[in-house]
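Q: what does this look like with zinc ion bound?
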Amino acid sequence: MGESIMKKETYILGIETSCDETAVAIVKNGREIISNVVASQIESHKRFGGVVPEIASRHHVEQMTVVLEEAFNASKLSWEDIDAITVTEGPGLVGALLVGVNSAKALAFAKQKPLIGVHHIAGHIYANRLEKEFQFPLLALIVSGGHTELVLMKDHGVYEVIGETRDDAAGEAYDKVARMLKLPYPGGPQIDRLAEVGEENIAFPRAWLEEDSYDFSFSGLKSSVINKIHNAKQREESLKDEDIAASFQASVIDVLTKKTVRAAKEFNVKQVIVAGGVAANRGLRAELEAQFADLAIPLIIPPLKLCTDNAAMIAAAGTIAYEQGRRSDLDLNANASLLLK
Amino acid sequence: MNILAIDTSNQVLGVAILKDDQIIGEIVTNLAKNHSVRLMPAIDKLMKEVSMSPEQLDKIVVAKGPGSYTGVRIGLATAKSLAWALNIPIVGISSLEALAYQGRFFNGYICPFFDARRGMVYTGLYKWSEGKLNAVYEETNSLMEDILNKLAEEKKEVLFLSPDISIYKEAIMSNIGEFACVPDGPYHLAKPSHLALAGMERTADPTHTLTPNYLRLAEAEANWMKAQKEKQQNG
Ligand SMILES: [Zn+2]
């Protein structure tokens, strides 16, 4: 007990390489960003119209120590200050994850520091704690290119997935529709932009699934959009891209918002947090804000730079794991389909 | 001078520690098992065995490929992060060169190679002279058939070294059997102690920019470049 009272501040190093960002951050006490460096590869992947795993892995190995050094230099801390090394263990692209995991293990060994593998989604959730302290129970809606999940948390570090996508992630549907509309990569923000000026005049389906289910499904919606575009082309009808975007986005937002609201009520949560790249979507933000203002449940959406992949979120989630005594061994491996628990 | 050598560029997982001019420890396995899981524990075990702590290391030597893309990256991510964190120099050595050390006392040419699928190999041609390994042909990713044709014209003795020797032994013998020397067993596996030796005198690479020696573009990149070229040609 004496130790925890005497304990200085906790500084945790985070590493994230699960997709196309090489990121390193240092976070103090799980709440304060000391440094947060993200080297994006988006320019390199643009020409391929999406993230190419092998190229992403190649960039990570080129960037890793550069980004580490930048994060350290920006922090003005030394190795003595660092309490633990945390790293995204999964899920994600396995080749990309491997670079971060092996780098983290090498650092932990070289500096004889504790090593902790972190779940990527736990990271997205904890990005919000860098803004506002959690209040339990809380509900997290995670929407990104790879994920659409509703997670209930009754305490720090304890995650209960109450709903998840049965097919495509919401962000994936965005990317596919964007490609149909020949929008540049990444397509999500482009659709959001078009939707703002378009009119919701096409009735796309909403997949509610079973009445009590919190799961999602977006592949039917995606097919419906594709069919609509095809049919219109064959009949030489003209459809406005803006209207397709607005109608598609309305369907996604409708399902995401209604399910989140229903879960928030059922579990009597004190906070709702939104995480993942799609949390940057203006349409989604506006609708959630409106709904939860009515319910008087506090809604937290992180600023844009914390919505997308970064390492501060990994360090933030890793801080809780560190405090709870969780440790990984030097045989830690990348796990592309790691479950959140 | 304490050197840690790391090789996960192919199926062999190798770790060696060289203290002054002596190899004081070496771990080698040749198993189709996960390098990511096993590398750091192997380093940890060997360091403990020789009673050395990380900060006693003076240099890291790493096999930088060619080989398995993933394997090479596991080795480089580990080696670069170790060198950066310990603030010590790093040297990347070609995996082909490291393997060529198995032919240290062979007088003719040495042809180390790794299978790169579909009849292709990563290879180079080397010769030892005055205690030094010299490159005769540059490293390449080529059809084995083309390599053998080229070697046939040389009409000189060639020692073939490869963990994938069984795939090409017949082709080697039928093409240049009279000049070919194909040893048995352990000579075909790269040893991390040789890697440490190769890196001992070598000038350090800049840690940040040391990159894998893939010898091949990523498929998506190759396709993209091809498409760009076609676009240019079609106006
Ligand atoms: Zn993410």
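Residues A 120, 124, 144, 276, 309 surround zinc ion (CB under 6 Å). The beta strands of chain A are 11-16, 21-28, 32-40, 82-90, 115-119, 138-143, 148-155, 158-164, 271-275, 299-300.
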